[in-house]
Amino acid sequence: MWALVNGLITIGMLLIVPLGLRLLMSPVAGGAGRLLSLWPVAAIAGVASLWLPRGAVATGFAAIYALATIALAAIAVALAVRGRTGILSGDGRIRIGVRTRPELEWRDRLAMGTALVSPAIAAGALVAERAGYRLFGFELGVLTLTVAHFHFAGFAAALIAGLHRRLAPGRLADTAVLAVPAGTLLVLAGYFTSEFVELAGAMVLTAGMWAMGWSTWRHARRRVADRLAATLFATSAVVLAASMVLAVSWALGEATGLPHPSLAWMAATHGVANALGFAVCGLAAYTRLQPSPSPGDAVGQIHSPADSGIWRGVARRGTWPTSTWRPRRSGRELLHGGESRPGSKATART
């Protein structure tokens, strides 16, 4: 079981986190860009700590990884305080197609902040577990599971919820972008209080994940033109429908004493499904729709076609457009170079 868990954590460090960060930050310049470029070094150190015997060497490698995650958490704190992407980009703007917006909405900041803080929580548990220290009295096995949980249910789920709200805004997306961070925090609080609080967190998290899954399924079927991206989106949505049932059943059993799956079974089913079926497929789909950063893009610019339901899906080749757009209802044509002309009515050139 523990080899499987370590394998999933390895995927989280080497693939999920850097893939997610590239969807949030353009690796062009600035402190955030340097952190992104150095992430492989920290990730390799974190992975090495997983597979080495407990002791000083493994703890040292885990500490290197922890330092990188602390830098991510610092970005989240600055984002929460300043409320603008200027802490990343220098110009305080988020790129949406060719248009810019001065700041993130608070729901987007909540999702992004949860995603950026989660690896630091995981790294804290990793350092303690590799040192053989029972942090807050938790068993070492629980600390290992915490590392996995906050890479996937923390970082990946919150990040994808935020990305989905920008791609397919609506009530379901709004529900997910609030419930996923809230459920993650409740599960964390349950570690220190009671199994019933953890159960409540699992239920809130499941509600958010199901809302996101259903919205993702509908959007993939109706508006994603790229077949591979649509298949990846649909896979991640279907996986959520099944895997979160296991999460609730386990938390319910822990709280009430009812029969429930073992940790080994949860790792082999819920853990693998969420890591590969949800996180990998979901982030791969968004990466496929992500435009390549241009030299003019600043670090921290977020790309998305969604803006108050105006845009219809994605471009024919599966990329998020960066030039010529023509909205369906806004009465504005966006031309190459970001110029706009009010009152134009036409369709996008592809």
Output the structural class: mainly alpha
Query: Helix content range of the residues, please?
Result: 55-70%
Query: What is the average of the pLDDT values?
Result: 78
Let me know the largest β-sheet. Answer: 2 strands, antiparallel
Tell me the strand percentage band: under 5%
- The geometry reads as globular
| N/C terminus separation | 49 Å
Strand order of the biggest β-sheet: 1-2
SSE order, as H and E? HHHHEEHHHHHHEE
Pick out the low-confidence regions.
Answer: 26-30, 84-102, 292-350
The helix count comes to 10
Number of strands: 4
Cα Rg: 20 Å
Q: Would you kindly provide a brief summary of this structure?
A:
With 350 residues, the protein is mainly alpha-helical.
Summarize the topology.
Elements: H1 2-24, H2 30-51, H3 56-82, H4 86-89, E1 94-96, E2 99-101, H5 106-130, H6 140-167, H7 171-192, H8 195-222, H9 227-256, H10 263-289, E3 332-334, E4 340-342
Antiparallel strand pairs: 1-2, 3-4
Provide tags for this entry.
350 residues, mainly alpha, two-stranded antiparallel ribbon, 10 helices, 67% helix, 3% strand, disordered C terminus
Question: If you had to describe this structure to a student in words, what would you say it looks like?
Answer:
- The protein is mostly helical and about 350 residues long.
- Helices cover about 65% and strands about 5% of the residues.
- It has helices at about 1-25, 30-50, 55-80, 85-90, 105-130, 140-165, 170-190, 195-220, 225-255, 265-290; strands at about 95, 100, 330-335, 340.
- The strands form 2 sheets. Strands 1-2 form a two-stranded antiparallel ribbon. A two-stranded antiparallel sheet has the order 3-4.
- α1 (about 1-25) packs parallel to α6 and α5 packs antiparallel against α6.
- The radius of gyration is 20 Å and the shape is globular.
